[in-house]
Design a protein that fits this description.
- The complex is a heterodimer.
- By secondary structure, chain A is an all-alpha fold.
- Chain A has helices at residues 3-26, 30-55, 58-82, 87-90, 99-116, 118-123, 127-130, 132-148, 152-174, 179-207.
- The termini of chain A are far apart.
- In chain B, the strands form three sheets. In chain B, strands 3-4-5 form a three-stranded antiparallel β-sheet, with no helix packed on it.
- In chain B, a hairpin with a 6-residue loop joins strand 4 (519-520) and strand 5.
- Classes of the chains: A mainly alpha, B mainly alpha.
- The interface between A and B is medium-sized, with 20 and 15 residues.
Chain lengths: 220, 671
């Protein structure tokens, strides 16, 4: 893999990564959001794979494969199973923030991400670190998704995106995370999704829906 | 949620019950055995350090950046050995207790951990390690206090304890951070080498903060409120560990940081010793007053702990004050008294709580007003509690006597020719110690007399059975320690001498008292021989028995006759003195301090108002310090919390938004 192709793949992956996050903000259909999460996982996995092939690092390629299997296949499947069958649960019906405003806020957050990561890039300018703002923007967008969505599954998608963003930032800044660290983090996320799936089922059984606003009465 | 986890209404089959019982026995033996083994190791280690010189161990990888530093010197060795001895007795006792009281698996697992943490605290050689082990000890003890968390009182006691111990930890943390910043290092050796350079303002701040933090652990007034709550509600082996070993760590902290490390730079100012003495005296008198009116057996013992910690702090303060005036010989005497009191208190308080535990296991009662008549039903436990009560009352041949006698001697013989302060303080302290001892006797006579003698006052007390052998063995060990410190303190002599030599700031260089068969005090007229007193007593008792037998030959034969019941039909056990009635005169005398809520209600017959149908007497003895000091604070905190609650409307989205906004602010500010 030449330098030019490596740069191209890296930039494409980072761009797709950010685009997937923006599309998640845009779409209201829960199933579509989960599918977008799978695409985002694919873009995330492309980063360590490209770096691994470029640097001839077998461990990094292994990390890439693990990430691919987990974030592009396993987690979206698990989440898709948690989506309810009722019509009102398959769509974010009454958003807390409307779509136009959401997209504007997303744009603002992306600009902010570019602004605050400038010192990080200045430390060690390289193709990988130049893509950090995109990953960072995903973190901020993910937090926004968690703040603005009502359905439990959308919240879980926000959480996954947050974790994807953190993982991408780690890959880009350190150019390669040790296998053991990535395995540990992935295991954590897998458990989190399993628990979330379980809790969603419980919520549905108890309240007949997974709207988080129904949880208001639980304070002590 | 806790109830849901605990009460599965399933009926086990006989096979399951049998298997569960066998598993419970294995757990009890494992936990108790491990605790006892750790304790034995602790005793061996402590003694080897005291007599063989300090030991050092550094584990670099365990804590990031600083590592774990363990330095055990003679002073730390003494506390490790005391903790170890208490744990050994408690461990053996736990084997029987856990089976009888069905202790759950979780507290049984944490018990050895708690003991290990307690023995690591005096071994810590750096500020970071000390804080780590201290917090480990606090967390483990909290888990143990909450063993029976399905009871509401236990949960309330747990909350109280958690808040107090964490506030204390905050004070200690602040003090030690100040100390290590001013002392230029993390390890205690570095800090003590440069402690002379610490400015006096910082020293004062460190002293006050450590007094607050360690005082709350030692149960000194006014930070004692967790003690009479947590100790009664914890399982008895845990109460014994907390009351006999853990509170000592507060004393250790005061000695280590205020008198040893800070004292090596400058001699401590006069007011430090004076402050310690005042806190000690007030705690001692208040603790013993509360103990003498308490009717809950374990609460009484908990207040007695406050009393004894007060006496120890008084002795420490006296040592510090005297050494700041240069009277090293008498300071060494006071310091010896403090160390001896720590030893004897650990011995008799372990025994007392273990005996109270075996009463609780046999009857399910802690209320003295419902006990009684145990001397026939549980003779072994009764003898054990008797030894403990004798020790706690500070009478000759009791474990606490020699220490209190030494303390009184040091107070009486302090040089006060030219200093007004000593002239005023020392006689007042003598008065406080004397009052404490006197009231202590009343409290212990009440606990023993009402709790164990006479006739049972309830069906549960009537049905009591003796404790199993393992519990009696554990208590026997503690009783042996009590007897040694009462009759032969000579055995502790070399040990205390070594520890004292390691504390140069407290008159370590001056010759301490000689704890021979005759206790002699150098430079002071006064000596005593507890061993000889014991021998004389035994001889006198034997002589009296022989004389009585000899004289009895001429007596007429005994005749059985009905008991004179003052004209009433029969005597019922309810006509006996109860703990409440025994303490009533004291309650009346100290009404201003204790402020009991009493209520007498007289009901007359409808036909005539001159004839009384019944009289109801209710009394509630709350802790006046707690009511005056804690209630306003808790109320203020609750009021403030109302403002904070407004930001908590219950919306998950809002909480997430708080986090998001916080993140953005941090990002923008930090760049």
């Amino acid at each position: 893999m030449t330098q030019a192709i490596y740069n191209g793949v890296l930039n494409l992956a980072a761009g797709a990564f950010l685009l997937a996050a923006v599309l998640v903000v845009w779409r209201r259909e829960v199933r579509a959001i989960v599918r977008l999460l799978a695409w985002q996982g694919l873009a995330l996995a492309a980063i360590p794979l490209a770096e691994g092939i470029y640097q001839d690092d077998a461990a990094l390629i292994a990390v890439g494969v693990v990430v691919l299997l987990l974030r592009a296949v396993a987690l979206p499947l698990l989440l898709a199973r948690a989506v309810g069958t009722e019509a009102h649960e398959r769509r974010e019906s009454t958003p807390l923030v409307n779509t136009t405003t959401s997209l504007l806020i997303t744009a603002a957050l992306t600009v902010l991400a570019y602004a605050v990561t400038r010192p990080v890039i200045a430390l060690d300018p390289s193709p990988a670190t130049r893509a950090v703002p995109a990953a960072f923007a995903v973190i901020l967008i993910a937090v926004f998704v968690m703040v603005s969505r009502r359905q439990a599954v959308s919240q879980a998608v926000g959480f996954m995106m947050l974790d994807n963003g953190i993982a991408a930032t780690a890959f880009l800044i350190t150019s390669g995370v040790p296998l053991i660290v990535e395995l540990g983090a992935s295991l954590d996320v897998l458990f989190a999704v399993l628990v979330l799936g379980l809790l969603t089922g419980h919520m549905r059984a108890t309240f007949g829906g997974t709207d988080l606003d129904q949880l208001r009465e639980l304070r002590g | 949620m806790t109830t849901a986890l605990h009460e599965f209404p399933t009926v086990p089959t006989p096979g399951q019950t049998l298997r569960a019982a066998r598993r419970a026995r294995v757990h009890a033996v494992l936990s108790g055995g491990l605790t006892a083994a750790l304790g034995t190791v602790g005793v061996a280690l402590g003694l080897s350090v005291i007599f063989g010189g300090p030991r050092e161990l550094r584990v670099g990888w365990l804590l990031p950046l600083v590592g774990v530093q363990l330095n055990l010197d003679a002073l730390g060795g003494l506390f490790v050995a005391v903790t170890g001895a208490v744990s050994a007795a408690v461990g053996i006792y736990t084997v029987g207790y856990a089976r009888r009281e069905h202790l759950a698996r979780f507290p049984l697992t944490v018990l050895p951990l708690f003991v290990a943490a307690m023995m690591l605290v005096p071994a810590a050689g750096s500020v970071t390690t000390f804080l780590l082990t201290w917090e480990l000890m606090a967390a483990a003890s909290l888990v143990l206090v909450l063993s029976e968390h399905h009871r509401a009182e236990v949960r309330s006691a747990g909350v109280f304890y958690a808040v107090m111990t964490q506030l204390g930890f905050a004070a200690i943390l602040l003090a030690l951070v100040l100390l290590s910043a001013a002392g230029g290092g993390d390890s205690f050796d570095t800090i003590s080498a440069s402690s002379g350079d610490i400015p006096s303002g910082t020293r004062t701040a460190i002293f006050l903060l450590t007094l607050l933090g360690f005082g709350s652990k030692a149960g000194l007034l006014p930070l004692h409120a967790w003690l009479p709550r947590a100790h009664p509600e914890a399982p008895s082996p845990v109460s014994a560990l907390m009351s006999a070993a853990m509170v000592n760590m507060g004393i250790y902290g005061i000695i280590r940081f205020d008198l040893d490390i800070l004292g090596q730079g400058h001699p401590s100012p006069h007011w430090w010793g004076l402050t310690l003495m005042i806190f000690g005296a007030v705690s001692a008198v208040f603790g013993v007053l509360q103990a003498s009116v308490a009717t809950d057996l374990k609460r009484l013992l908990a207040y007695s702990t406050t009393e004894n910690m007060g006496l120890i702090t008084l002795a420490l303060g006296a040592a510090a004050l005297l050494s700041s005036y240069g009277a090293m010989a008498v300071a060494a005497l006071a310091m010896t008294a403090a160390l001896l009191l720590i030893l004897s208190h650990a011995a008799f308080k372990t025994l007392a709580f273990l005996a109270a535990g075996s009463v609780l296991a046999a009857t399910g009662l802690r209320d003295l007003d419902k006990l009684g008549g145990l001397a026939r039903r549980m003779p072994g436990t009764t003898v054990m509690f008797g030894i403990a009560a004798l020790g706690a009352s500070g009478l000759p041949l009791g474990a606490g006597f020699v220490g209190e006698w030494l303390l009184l001697q040091s107070l009486i013989h302090s040089p006060h020719d030219d200093t007004t302060l000593l002239m005023l303080v020392m006689p007042l302290s003598v008065g406080a110690v004397a009052l404490t001892t006197g009231l202590g006797i009343a409290a212990m006579v009440k606990a023993f007399g009402v709790g164990f003698l006479a006739r049972p006052r309830s069906a549960a007390a009537e049905a009591a059975r003796e404790a199993p052998a393992s519990m009696l063995t554990g208590m026997g060990l503690a009783a042996a320690a009590c007897t040694v410190s009462a009759v032969a303190p000579v055995l502790f002599g070399p040990l205390l001498e070594r520890v004292l030599t390691a504390l140069p700031t407290l008159g370590g260089e001056a010759a301490g008292p000689m704890l021979g068969a005759y206790l002699r005090l150098p430079g002071v007229t006064g000596s005593i021989a507890p061993g000889l007193i014991a021998v004389a007593l035994v001889v006198a008792v034997l002589l009296a028995l022989a004389l009585a037998r000899w004289g009895g030959r001429h007596r007429p034969a005994a005749v059985q006759a009905p008991l004179w019941a003052c004209g009433a039909d029969s005597l019922s056990p309810r006509m006996q003195y109860t703990a409440t009635s025994f303490a009533e005169p004291l309650q009346r005398v100290f009404d201003n301090v204790l402020r009991p809520e009493t209520d007498v209600e007289v009901t007359h017959y409808a036909e005539s108002q001159y004839l009384v149908e019944k009289v109801t007497y209710r009394t509630l003895q709350a802790d006046p310090v707690e009511q005056r000091l804690y209630t306003p604070v808790v109320r203020a905190v609750t009021a403030w919390a109302q403002y904070v609650r407004r930001a908590h409307p219950g919306s998950v989205h809002l909480y997430l938004a708080y986090g998001a906004i916080g993140l953005l602010v941090v990002l923008v500010v930090a760049r």
